[in-house]
Write a structure and sequence with these properties.
The protein is an all-alpha fold. It is built from three helices and no strands. The radius of gyration is 16 Å and the shape is elongated.
């Protein structure tokens, strides 16, 4: 539905996709929004495991799932 509205109303609709692509400021916005996930993950790891992991693994793609870490 979001794509349909975006294509039908380009003069008043802007679609923001959740990946680290596009012109400034969109990659920075994605980074800032995903930072919330990284902060929460860090807090939970320290709380539950008492330390940070040696590595973090993320799937291949646009990078948005790992940018906040």
């Amino acid at each position: 539905e979001a794509f349909r509205d975006w294509v039908a109303n380009v003069d008043r609709t802007h679609y923001l996709f959740g990946t680290v692509a596009g012109p400034h400021p969109f990659p920075a916005m994605v980074r800032d929004f995903h930072r919330v996930i990284g902060v929460e993950a860090r807090r939970q790891l320290l709380e539950r495991a008492g330390r940070l992991p040696d590595a973090a693994v993320a799937c291949v793609g646009g990078g948005s799932n790992a940018i906040g870490l």
